[in-house]
Amino acid sequence: MTYKLGIIGTNWITKQFVEAANESGQYELTAIYSRRESTGQKFGQDFNVDAVYTDLETFYNSGIDVVYIASPNSVHFEQVKTAIVHDIHVIVEKSAFSNPNEYAQIMQLLAEHKNVRLFEAARHIQQPNFKIIEEQVAKMPKISGATFVYEKYSSRFDEYLAGNEPNVLSRQFSAGALTDLGIYPIYAIIKLFGKPQASHYFATPLRNGADGRGIAILRYQDFDVTVEFGKGSNSHLNSEILGLRDTLVIGDIAEVLDITYYDADKVAHELSQAPATNPMISEAELFADMMTNKTETKTAYETLLTLSQTVNQVLFDLRQDAGIVFPADK
User: Fold this and answer.
1) Domain Gfo/Idh/MocA-like oxidoreductase N-terminal spans what residues (predicted)?
2) 194 conformational bin, left if phi > 0, alpha if psi -120 to 50, beta if neither
3) 3-state SS track over 2-22
């Protein structure tokens, strides 16, 4: 089956997903939603699509089967809710929702619309190299701790320094370092080790109260994981998962490109595979399979949905610990 795809958001990540969707052969872009018609038309030119909508209700009634949402975090909830009510499958960029209350309402809607599938687009955990990480961690006799780093200078940080407040650095849009960049390592950590027993977040605030960078500590029964992330500087540090004498080194936890396992004798074993041309192809194919083969993939889908909800709860707990409140929380 080929799914009629609609998109909300016309930035680079949307283009990358549409290209992956086309490459999979299981989607056809048929509708574009944009607040400005000219922006939507410009995006559509690359894919020979001229069906551009500026009204959300009309967009959802255009005959699409699935929507990919890459709008600001704060508007995900209403856009996802409306899609589900229209019995449209949803692929929503991370962070999916602002808080657990929003997620609980979405779960209730999903229970009422049982044919709808909801996916959070955490592409890195679906890539083949992440599966290699999972397999190697399972082989390590003991985990002693880990450090994950993802610190990348935002293309919008100069704008912030100039006195403006871009969406990705604003609490108004449920954004900041944690929900924009920190979610990459935190998703990986929870996928590998499960929900932490406790969590703490030491945030470096911006002048508007959002977090520009920070260090989170996730506590497990036998070890702790330190997570460092930020949008106002560049880090070139690797991420590491520590065993006893052995160590797993990950070059970039968001792109999952380089994986090296150092055994007890300090011998390096290169584990990573050559990445796909488009890093979103694996998730595009997986989501299509889960929409098509609902019975066969029911357990895997429910596991993925539970993971997404757990990540949402941990992000909220970290924000609470740091005293960061989004308008959507009230």
Assistant:
1) 4-116
2) left
3) CEEEEEECCCHHHHHHHHHHH
**Rounded distance, CA 185 to CA 164, Å?**
28
One-letter amino acid for residue 136 of the chain: Q
Q: Which amino acid is at 320?
A: Q
SS3 state at 214: strand
Pairing of strands 247-250, 259-262: antiparallel
How much is the pTM? 0.96
CB 136, CB 57: distance < 8 Å? no
Residues 6+ apart with CB under 8 A from 87: 113, 115, 116
Q: What is the DSSP letter of 26?
A: S
Query: What is the strand order of the sheet 259-262 is part of?
Result: 198-205, 211-219, 224-230, 145-151, 239-242, 247-250, 259-262, 268-270
* Contact by Cβ (8 Å): 33, 54: yes
- What domains are defined for the chain? 3-121 (3.40.50.720), 125-279 (3.30.360.10)
Please say whether the beta carbons of 193 and 180 come within 8 A.
no
| Residue 290: count of CB within 10 angstroms of its CB | 19
Q: Which residue has the tokens 């929003």?
A: 102
Copy the structure tokens of residue 55: 């009204």
Phi, psi of 126 (to 5 degrees): -100, -5
